[in-house]
Design brief:
Layout: H1 4-12, H2 16-19, H3 27-31, H4 33-48, H5 53-58, H6 64-78, H7 84-89, H8 94-98, H9 105-121, H10 127-151
Amino acid sequence: MQSLQDKASEWSGVNRDDAFAIDQINLYEKLGLQTFISLSTNFYNRVYDDEEEWFRSIFANSKKEDAIQNQYEFFSQRMGGPPLYNQRRGHPALIGRHRPFPVTHEAAERWLHHMQLALDSTTDIDSESKIKMMNFFRHTAFFLVAGDELKNPKQGIACKHAAGKPAAV
């Protein structure tokens, strides 16, 4: 049986080493808190304005300001900064925190689409850091999809990276 990390690598197209290259440099020190705030704001402005109702509905029970804060605190902490997220919310426990939401292949791709646009529009992030961050985001998004399958193993796979592959049990 494949591990969640193995599934994430397979479905995301990003191997574990590339996904965790963010750990080779302290991106928080390099970029600063304000950059993570800007990235998260750019991202959630796109998410909450998404033309796809099914995708917007995933976030309907969250205030945009809270979503922005959760994300920039998590990103800052995960990329070398202070434990802001842990201090306010406890351990990130990504799979558990995302359990109430439909974390499908399609949702992951849509999330990644908005994150790529947000990265592209956040000019304070250099191109090498953007690549490392996107590899981490891509792998993590599909790690959450694999975790979602633990609660819902019969869901279909609607993802260009997983075409022709059966849903894992």
